[in-house]
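Dear Dr. H.,

I hope your travels went smoothly. While you were away I took the liberty of generating a structure for the chain from your last submission, since the lab meeting agenda had it listed for discussion. I wanted you to have the full record in hand beforehand rather than looking at slides cold. The sequence, exactly as received, is reproduced here:
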Amino acid sequence: MGDRTILDEHGVGDVCRSGRGQLLAPWPNRIEDGSYEFDGRSFELPLNEPARRNAIHGLVRWSHWSVAERAADRVASTRPSAT
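The corresponding predicted structure, in token form, is as follows:
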């Protein structure tokens, strides 16, 4: 907006700090003990915050995404690839 910086960007080759700018899906926070149930099934996740026994910031945080389709109310992506 005018001369104000709206986004806190990082360089193309930089690794972002914390979860800034990352897609944190299917959850944006922590799952205690890395276990959850969905649709009647139980799942175990890797504890990537082991000192606190948490799975943190989704399954796709470090995946690369490309926009496949765009509309005013949604965006669809191509299948992510691992980094």
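Two observations you may find useful: Strands lie at 30-32, 35-38, 41-44, 54-56, 67-71, 74-77. Residues 30-77 form one domain.

With kind regards,
E. W.
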